[in-house]
Amino acid sequence: MEKGIWGFTILIVCSLASRTEGLGMDQNRQILGFQGNAGDALDDDPVGRLKVFVYELPSKYNVDLVKRDPRCLTHMFAAEIFMHRFLLSSPVRTLDSEEADWFYVPVYPTCDLTKDGLPLPFRSPRMMRSAIQLIASEWPHWNKTEGADHFFVVPHDFGACFHYQEETAVERGILPLLRRATLVQTFGQKNHVCLKEGSIVIPPYASPQRMHAHLLPPDIPRSIFIYFRGLLHDGMNDPEGCYYARGARASLWLNFKNNPIFDISTEHPSTYYEDMQRSIFCLCPLGWAPWSPRLVEAVVFGCIPVVIADDIVLPFADTIPWTDIAVFVAEKDIVRLDTILTSMPTEIILRKQRLLANPLIKLAVSFPQPSRPGDAFHQILNGLARKLPHGSSVYLQPGQKVLNWTAGSVEDTYPWEK
Ligand SMILES: *[C@@H]1O[C@H](CO)[C@@H](O)[C@H](O)[C@H]1NC(C)=O
Ligand SMILES: *[C@@H]1O[C@H](CO)[C@@H](O)[C@H](O)[C@H]1NC(C)=O
């Protein structure tokens, strides 16, 4: 399974006919939960609103993995590493576990790459289990809540379902030991077993240094109307073209490859980031997963994201005014994409571009090093702070057990060794 720069190695059920009906923009607005100026929370300051205890785990759960394979620092799942580094020196960190509101378990489940650099999550459940066993035996906090005041960063395709194929991910469900914890994850789709209530949906990681290195002057004319570069058909994993992107990308190619207002191709030019800055609309269709780093890149480069992924839950949707800055097109409406975009009134396009230029929005989807107030790290903390104070259901009676340590797949209970 090739996992190229564009791709997601996830299999999705071929059910093109049964997708939800198309949504108008107003319906999208309701579903995503925005009311007008929700963007005000973008510059909330989490400092003083929560205290986080960072467990000190043996380095085999985190830094050793990065030493062994530094490719983890640049792939789209790198938030698990940078969040750890950020928290170690964050003012919300407390060294006194007794006064903590939240407990953070620094494991890098996506940094266990194959020789070819593929972040396959097959061993992640064992690693998680091993780390949880360790903290539950050496500290008193896990047993008091069985993880309900703990959080984990699980950025892989389907989060803590830990599988790249959707069917299998759904069948597995969230790793049983993580079912009381708060999950900080990239995967976001409504009514999906791999996104539980209370999870925090974050942007995928796109290297801020790399994007910055390609910045053009802000007044560069946008001469490309619709831009897309990426996989249109995953011939290796989906030769018949029935599963990949639920057919959405194949349909894009089929319908618009010869349309002069569309600049779409599978070729990855060295001017990719410059081209986004010269474009008005950047297509962000689903791939193997509903999300891709394109969404972040489009926002950073001020290109209006055209989100084609039914039921997607976007990162920090309670804070970032996605409906104001992006365009949402239902998968079934791809055939009308040219009409939808050409008939959009100029003042709406200009308004979206103006809002996209807001540096607070760009910052909120970025993981800069060093961190800056308002960036994605701070938005994660804001999300955790908004969940406080913990309700009484978080705390168990002494001796009470809710989670079943042996539930789930048998392979997940095998020892994890490095
Ligand atoms: C937490 O509970 C487990 C049994 O579920 C036990 O083995 C462990 O020792 C307990 N941890 C502490 C710190 O008491
Ligand atoms: C825990 O899960 C295992 C495996 O699914 C099952 O056999 C066992 O009965 C469960 N234990 C409890 C207490 O539910």
From TrEMBL:
<dbReference type="InterPro" id="IPR004263">
    <property type="entry name" value="Exostosin"/>
</dbReference>
<dbReference type="GO" id="GO:0016757">
    <property type="term" value="F:glycosyltransferase activity"/>
</dbReference>
<dbReference type="GO" id="GO:0009834">
    <property type="term" value="P:plant-type secondary cell wall biogenesis"/>
</dbReference>
<keyword id="KW-0333">Golgi apparatus</keyword>
<feature type="signal peptide">
    <location>
        <begin position="1"/>
        <end position="22"/>
    </location>
</feature>
<keyword id="KW-0808">Transferase</keyword>
<keyword id="KW-0735">Signal-anchor</keyword>
<feature type="domain" description="Exostosin GT47">
    <location>
        <begin position="49"/>
        <end position="344"/>
    </location>
</feature>
<dbReference type="GO" id="GO:0000139">
    <property type="term" value="C:Golgi membrane"/>
</dbReference>
<comment type="similarity">
    <text>Belongs to the glycosyltransferase 47 family.</text>
</comment>
<keyword id="KW-0812">Transmembrane</keyword>
<dbReference type="GO" id="GO:0010417">
    <property type="term" value="P:glucuronoxylan biosynthetic process"/>
</dbReference>
<dbReference type="InterPro" id="IPR040911">
    <property type="entry name" value="Exostosin_GT47"/>
</dbReference>
<keyword id="KW-0732">Signal</keyword>
<dbReference type="Pfam" id="PF03016">
    <property type="entry name" value="Exostosin_GT47"/>
</dbReference>
<keyword id="KW-0328">Glycosyltransferase</keyword>
<protein>
    <recommendedName>
        <fullName>Exostosin GT47 domain-containing protein</fullName>
    </recommendedName>
</protein>
